[in-house]
Amino acid sequence: MSSSAAQPVVGMIAGEASGDTLGEEIIQALLRRFPGIRLVGIGGPRMIGAGLESWHDQERLAVRGLVEVVHRIPELLRIRKRLVKQLIAAAPKVVIGIDSPDFTLGVERRLKRRGIPTVHCVSPTIWAWRARRIHGIRRAVSHMLTLFPFEEKLYRDAGVEVTCIGHPLADTLSNGPTQDVAREQLRIPAGARVVAILPGSRQHEIEMMAPTFIEVAKRLHALDPTLHFLVPLVTRPTRLLFEERLYRQDANELPISMLYGHAHDAMAAADVVLAASGTATLEAALLGRPVVIAYRVVSLTFRIARMMMQTPFIGLPNILAGTALCPEFLQDDATPENLTQAVLNLLQDKRTRTALSEQFVAIREQLALGAAERAAGAIAPFIERK
Questions:
Q1: Which structural domain, as residue segments, surrounds residue 127?
Q2: Strand order in the sheet with 291-295
Q3: This prediction's pTM
């Protein structure tokens, strides 16, 4: 397999659902500039639908946690080895890795050694923990695309070419649904009080977070039987896991609307969001919704991560604001009692909810830069080179 002048090859690697969404948008932006390119690598259904020829199942790369990944290492190494060979044979103009740094940077480093330019989109959180990773990143990456403006200086200081593209969610959610529109779409009475519950997008996150979040819903419902709960889940397996936990915790009678996807609608419709730490917390902020952030992982993973953390916050809204806008509860502090009280405080304090919404507007304006087009603009010189 080899590229030709008539059909330049571009490699792309995205290891999980969030990368698949961003990858789709970058593909669309690239195809507007270069209609004849061939796109190969690893992606999910969105990237495949946009035109990517995916050589491996993206789901096999989706692993989170320091301890949890150990038993998957042999399989991941086999996929990486084969993918590197395939990409070298395809002779791409450039290879774009999207997030999933533990996998994608390893591929990029090997390709860059062979003279293939590499662009990495979504900086690893070197500003939060494991700052020394930037030296390895410099060996792997020809050009870094960051989502947050404060990341640019870190890379420039380390001698890495960098472009801040902003966050694609800020572009998407700048015109997100209003609360009234979202409630109408979800058939929720306009005057109802609503809590959106987002326990995570992966099965192991559901296993860790669902029992606590369901207990919070039970306690809130006992305090206010008029509350309605929205639970958007991405896949059938995660939905089945959540439904199983509802049954085991005798919570089937709770007024819960289970949704396939529609996470943005659920958050927009809510008065308060309860979410596992991750992209959902930023989405809630970009939609102007107050969010209570919680996270639990395997104890050993948490102890290792805590020793390496360089920021007092884990929630992206708090990191971007540089202050504790949203309550955070980690590991042993993520108890039903603490989370119930935090959600209740926000439900009962409309003034705080309004003030938070105004502060979230500033975050959205900081990040809404036209991410996909800026990414395509930074990638274009590699495709155009002779």
A1: 9-166+369-384
A2: 256-260, 228-233, 194-198, 272-276, 291-295, 328-330
A3: 0.79
